[in-house]
Amino acid sequence: MAHQEACQLFIEQEIKEGLSQGKTPYSIGKELSAWVEKLFRANIPAKTIAKRAERESHKLATNVANPPTPINPSAILKNQVCGHGGGREGAGRPAKYTKPPEPYSSALYLVEIALSQLSRIEPDDPNRKEAFQKVIDWIHEQLKEEKIK
Fold it and tell me: Quick count: other Cβ atoms within 10 Å of Cβ 24?
């Protein structure tokens, strides 16, 4: 048995024995801290042992997590799928406000690009009016097709 495991086992056994004798967690911690230092040459604060004894006296779980022991492994794996708000349906805090999705439209963005390009035509360009008329005709054609549909 490793040195650390032996120390942990000694502490657990002494805490159980001390609680069964009616000792307080504080006195158990103070007494065990001195013994652990003598026997194992490990400096464990009395407060740490007293807290462990307190948890044991109230039958609380320790702060060390037990390894998982799945009864039905497929159910556990199914619950581990992450989603919005937690792994299981309905888990996690509900959202304060959910904004409805807006329909995506690139029309205004493309118009801005077209206008910025058209504004690059110089005022003294000889084909300026012809170019603008071509754009106007295209727009009218598109609007006629919309009315037909």
Answer: 14
